[in-house]
Amino acid sequence: MTPEYKIRKASNNDYYFVLTGEDGREILASEMFLKKEAVGGGIDAVRMLSADDGKYVRKTSNTGRPYFVLTGADNQPVATGEFYPSKQAMEKGINTVKRIAPQAAVVDETDAPAA
Q1: Which of the ends of the chain has fewer CB neighbours closer than 10 A, N or C?
Q2: Is residue 92 within 8 Å of 98, Cβ to Cβ?
């Protein structure tokens, strides 16, 4: 599969995107946006920031599972990675984001008919 940014609409009518890897699995989810038009700026930020290892804040959940947060120029969260079974798996996820984020296609799923 091709890596993609998938634009989605949440149940509260806010918008967000997920980045999916070559296996179709979601590896990164954005913060929420009030307007669909703002999502593109978030995707552009991920494209631009993803190569900078210093923008990844490594964290551990309350249940002990590693995850990461990609931060912007203002050190505010831009997107959050999934929960991983180990720190090594989290680092692999970060490296995948670094590799695929700059060139991933954008797919708008907000106008797709309901299944």
Answers
A1: C
A2: no
At 108 the three-state DSSP class reads strand
- Taken in order 50, 52, 55, 58, the sign of the CA dihedral is positive
Task: Give the range of the structural domain holding residue 44, as residue numbers without chain letter.
Answer: 4-108
- The phi, psi pair for 56, rounded to 5°, reads -95, 120
pLDDT tens figures, 86-107: 999 999 999 999 999 999 999 9
Q: Is residue 66 within 8 Å of 86, Cβ to Cβ?
A: yes
pTM for the predicted model, two decimal places = 0.91
CATH of the domain at 50: 2.30.29.80
